[in-house]
Amino acid sequence: MKEIFTYVAKYKAAAVFALFLMAIELVVELIQPVIMAAIIDTGVTQHDIGSIGFWGAVLLGISVLAFASGILNSFFASKVSQGTAYDLRKDVYERIQHFSVTQIQRFAASSLITRLTADVTQIQSLIFMAMRIMLRAPLFIIGGVIMAFTVNVRLALILAAFVPFLLLIMFFLMTKGVKLFGSVQGKIDRLNAIIQENLLGIRLVKAFLRSTFEATRFRKVNHSLMEVNKRALQLMETVMPLVMLGMNTGIIAILWFGSVQMEAGDAQPGEVVAILNYATRILGSFGVFSFLLMNFSRGKASAARITEVLLEQPEERLDKGDQREQKLSGQITFDEVSFRYPKAKQPALMHVSFSVEAGEVVGVIGETGSGKSTLVQLIPGLFPVTLGSIYFDERPIESIGVQQLRRQIGIVPQQAHLFSGTIRENLLWGNEEASNKEIIQAAEDASIHDYIISLPHGYDTVIGQRGINLSGGQKQRLSLARALVREPKILILDDSTSALDANTEAKVLQALRRRSCTVFIIASKISSVKSAEQILLLKHGELEASGPHHELIKQNAYYRTIYQSQSETEVFEHAGNKW
Amino acid sequence: MQETNGNQSGQQPARMPSRHHHGAPRQKPEIKNMRQTLQRIWQYMYAKKLLFFLTLFMVVASSTLSLLGPYLLGVTVDHMIADFQTSELTFMLILLGVIFITQSVAVWLQNYWMITIAQETVQTMRNELFYHIQLLPLPFFQRRQSGEVMSRLTNDMENVSRTLNSSVIQLATSVLTLAGTVSIMLWLSPLLTLLTLTIVPLMFWGMKWITNRTGRYFKAQQKDLGDVNGYVEETLSGHHIIKAFSQEERVTAAFHEKNERLRDSGYWAQTYSGFIPKLMNSLNNLSFTIIVGFGAILAVNGLISIGIIVTFTTYARQFTRPLNDLANQYNVVLSAVAGAERVFEIMDEEPEKDDPQAIRVERLHGEVEFQSVDFAYQEGGRTLSNIDFRVDSGQTVALVGPTGAGKTTLVSLLAQFYQPERGRILLDGQDASKIRRSSLRSNMGIVLQDSYLFETTVRENIRYGKLAATDEEVVQAAKAANADDFIQKLPNGYDTILHADGSGISHGQRQLLSIARVMVADPALLILDEATSSIDTITEMKINDAFRQLMKGKTSFVIAHRLNTVKSADMIVVIQSGKITEKGTHQELLKQNGYYASLVQSSSLRANG
Questions:
Q1: DSSP 3-state of B301
Q2: In terms of pTM, does the model score above 0.80?
Q3: B82 touches chain A (CB under 8 A)
Q4: Looking at the complex, does the CB of residue B568 fall below 8 Å from at least one CB of chain A?
Q5: Other Cβ atoms within 10 Å of B13 Cβ, number
Q6: From what superkingdom does this record's organism come (chain B) (predicted)?
């Protein structure tokens, strides 16, 4: 919460002004009963019409003042809340952009999304409320009691006795309620998990005839959600009747003592009326107060989630590298590279050494989990190596500016991720300055050009959420074209030709060879990389062997086993339709 | 006066779109048939009708008492001022006390009961919806994204729940209080009432002025909010691409632009909507002034008493509040009705239904015959045409062909996930559509390509195949599926809890478990979809062996990716573009020298080259 306040501080002037305007409104409301008392005591009882007219005009005047303050307050309050929300979103987003891949994974992208959207909105409305009514309810309660004292001390004492007592009850019930709502949230999460699991496995549920079983499972969790939810809500609903009862008892007490005092001549009827008026208004404030408390506790949770992101130091290695433009040739050397993911027990790569000449095609082969993807992710420095080092043209990776390095590397990930927009815009991701010719060349090399021009709007066809849907293979090829548009010196294909048929795959490989760049191909089938100058065979994070196919097949037994098992179990074609 | 509408301080309409529809902010709820929807909700509440009527009774009681309280308070004050008769005063105070206590109790009971009704209603609806979803045919799930279906079970139901919790009571209370307040005010002093009512046109005019503006700005704000959320979602889920292409600066700049637009539209939307409570508040102040000022003049002339003024100020406050509440609640109710409609829309989806003459079958032998079967997912399209072949009991059929040729569709038809458009599928000579789905599927075991496992123990995952299986049977099945070895090595053996994200065990091991799951069910017919992903050689061998174990004596349909499997099949069916182009044994097809032969050749070429 503290960090959020420093954000609000930027709008100090507007905030102070908004609070000041709110205070004016508050004062008006507090003096109204006093004026009313004056009208009754001086005007009505003494039959003084002039005095009534005068105080009536005053009452009207301050009401207009309160209205004007309220309207103005709205402007300043939304300036503060919208401004703060804007700054928060801006800073959180920037911060996330500087996070390393590990950090984003640790927070989980989905959680970061909710923090940036729902949580910020929560804070925004909390601030708006704070600028307008949050302080109002407590201030009104305090102010009301004080004003009551100025009217009649003894009667006010009764009022003052009830307020803290009621506040205590309210706080007690609210804290219990908030805790209960916490466990409601937990139950909802559990319910959602079951639904999600069920929907994802729906074919299985059908195949095994488990709908009744699933429904029973759901019913159980749903029931316990209902129970907790009911308890929480019902507890919260006891707050108001209890407070009402307490306050109304106070009113009766005031009436009783008021009458006693009036009898003794210690109090005027107007005074009793005024104090009663304060009492009923304070009663109303309690309702607002309990509502605010709920909002505050929710806002506090959101603030904590946002602050967590803001306080996280970006792990992306400090860019000490040379920022000047420097051309890479594509030559890479791994020297005794070891890597362990943060918090992982086992290292993902151990003592990997190899060297690749510029323009070579390198195949990376190994079982799932052998470290293939990890190895190539180290090349653009997405993760820093734990031990050993990587050299580009004999220069250590740390000495090259991150921007400089990544600008010359093209990555085609396993899961093609495209952004909504036109095809052209997506291809320009690779290189904003690319000419039309370069774009088309890249698309042709990725064997997607023909498809693109067959679309009604060609390169300007909108894809993504609001546009047409592409098949997995089309996405992969677009993602490849996007990488090619950068004219990379190093190209990394992370198992990204899996959705292509053998023919297209061969065609693409040929096109890649014409470009003078070093290509890393991660593949599950040896047949995809057989023509590579060098094949890296990984096993449990270690480099088991490396060399061209014809050497490996002779020298390495493990490679031979894989090769034989693959040719026997040769895959006819790839990934069938999902059920 | 106190803020008349504590629970909506102006930011209300700026609701966040829920997690499940980012980028598509909820516009004004669209309602198709309000009356019908309300009736359907009522049917669910009908189970609690007695409690509901008791609740309504309490609402009437508490509303009446909330009107009676201030009135008696005024009378009491009058008594105090006029003459100090202690006995009468005591009586009045006791009466007041009783009223206040009863009122609190009534309020508490009405809320307590309403929550019970609301929560149990929602529970029933949710259970029914969930069960209904289980019965829906497969095409339903292909038509809709699972996130969207999920959102109906969660967000939309939550919306209904919240509204039932509070809105029913609020609406009833508002209407009652409004009517009661106006009539009491009229009875007390028609003149003062008339004066108080002068603020009503002011209120309407003011509200109209404001909502004209807020409507416009809220629309803009919703759009901008949707843009920001959509962009955040897209760029954060694609963060690895942004990093790899080092485009951080670019997306940050684009984000700032959207963020700024949101701030600007949000500013005006919030400012204008912030006027509403202030307007209500000021009108309250105004009516207070009118009542006190004019009331005092009337009192001086002896037309009314001071007590009436006191009473009137209280009623005047009670008068603008319900008006405001009604306006607010109306929107809440609308959005809940829209949510309920989305729920009912799913409930109205036709579930998988058996033919009325469908019969139960016990154990099938496993003879399968496709008789000129046609099928299309979409009108006009054609996924399968003229599929015609016959399999004897205990045989293995390998389905071979390029991606998208229709192999998966074919076995889906066999499992009655879809109905053929033309032609018949015969099981033991019996038309499959005339067999109850439940008895048909209980004869069938399916191993999918991606082995889906549930987030529970290994034991329960295997038992999913046959709920009545003893622990003994589970272990037997695991052993037969070559899964026992690795299960024993897991931290808690058979009681190890698996995670949905697949962590903990390898891909191949997941597949072994899904084989064990079918093994325990021991079906007569098998549908296997071989995995294409690379699995280490040893596990691969184990899987092959497990498959062989499983297929023993059962009619099996295998969507085959491995030459070994295909070679050993009793019949190979080659499917291309939805048609059977070749069928026969490995040897026969090699002789035909068609697609299959070329496939075998190219793969052995690659193998030997």
A1: coil
A2: no
A3: no
A4: no
A5: 19
A6: Bacteria
The residue ranges of every structural domain in chain A are 1-135+302-315, 332-568
Which domains can be identified in chain B, with CATH numbers? Answer: 33-188 (1.20.1560.10), 366-443+524-535+553-609 (3.40.50.300), 453-522 (3.40.50.300)
- Residue A457 vs residue B54, higher pLDDT: B54
* Three-state secondary structure call for residue A217: helix
* B113 and A CB contact within 8 Å: no
Using the beta-carbon criterion (under 8 Å), do A132 and B9 form an inter-chain contact?
yes
Per-residue pLDDT for B120 more than 90? yes
Q: What does B355-418 look like in DSSP terms, one character per residue?
A: -TT-B---S----EEEEEEEE-SSTT--SEEEEEEEE-TT-EEEEE--TTSSHHHHHHHHTTSS
* Residue B363 zone, left/alpha/beta (φ > 0; ψ -120 to 50; rest): beta
Of A289-303, B49-63, B509-523, B571-585, which range is least confident? Answer: A289-303
CATH code of A332-568, in short, is: 3.40.50.300
pLDDT over 90 (residue B454): no
Q: Which two tokens stand for residue B575?
A: 């499917």
| pLDDT band for position B93 (cuts 50, 70, 90) | confident
CB B470 within 8 A of CB B477: no
What is the residue-averaged pLDDT of chain A? Answer: 83
Per the CB < 8 A criterion, the answer to whether A194 and A221 are in contact is yes
Preferred mutation among A21, A206, A323, A406 to probe B, highest tally of B CBs within 10 A: A206
Res B5 pLDDT > 60: no
In whole numbers, what is the pLDDT of chain B averaged over residues?
81
Query: Cβ of B80 and A255 within 8 Å?
Result: yes
Residue pair A547/A555 in contact by the 8 Å Cβ criterion: yes
ipTM: 0.75
Least confident stretch, B358-362, B407-411, B536-540: B536-540
Q: Measured between CB atoms, does B503 come within 8 Å of chain A?
A: no
Interface contact flag, B135 A79, Cβ < 8 Å: no
The whole-number average pLDDT for the span B327-354 is 83
Contact A56 B115 (CB under 8 A): no
B130 with A367: Cβ contact below 8 A:
no
**How high is the pLDDT of residue B450?**
67
Cα separation values, B527 from A152, A533, A546, B361, B524, Å: 88, 42, 40, 19, 10
Distance from CA of B215 to the nearest CA of A (A): 17
Question: Which candidate from A211, A230, A245 shows the least CB-CB separation from B135?
Answer: A211
Looking at the domain A1-135+302-315, which fold is it? Answer: ABC transporter transmembrane region fold (1.20.1560)
Mean pLDDT over A332-337 rounds to 92
Question: Which of A31, A191, A211, A539 should we substitute to test contact with B (largest number of B Cβ atoms within 10 Å)?
Answer: A211
**Interface membership of A472 toward B (CB under 8 Å):** no
Determine contact: B353 vs chain A, CB below 8 A: no
Q: Is B436 exposed, middle or buried (0-12, 13-18, 19+ CB in 10 A)?
A: middle
Quick check: A566 pLDDT over 70? no
Is the CB of B134 less than 8 angstroms away from the CB of A211?
yes
Q: What is the pLDDT of residues B235-263, one digit of tens each?
A: 887 777 777 777 788 888 889 999 999 99
Minimal Cβ distance to B402: which of A117, A248, A573: A573
Chain A 411-470, residues with CB within 8 Å of chain B CB atoms: 411, 413, 417, 419-420, 429-430, 432, 464-465
CA distance B279 to B604: 83
Contact criterion met (CB < 8 Å) for B2 and A562:
no
The listed range with the strongest mean pLDDT (A2-11, B374-383, B534-543) is A2-11
Inter-residue contact B513 to B458 (CB < 8 Å): yes
Which has the minimum average pLDDT: B56-65, B312-321, B585-594?
A: B312-321
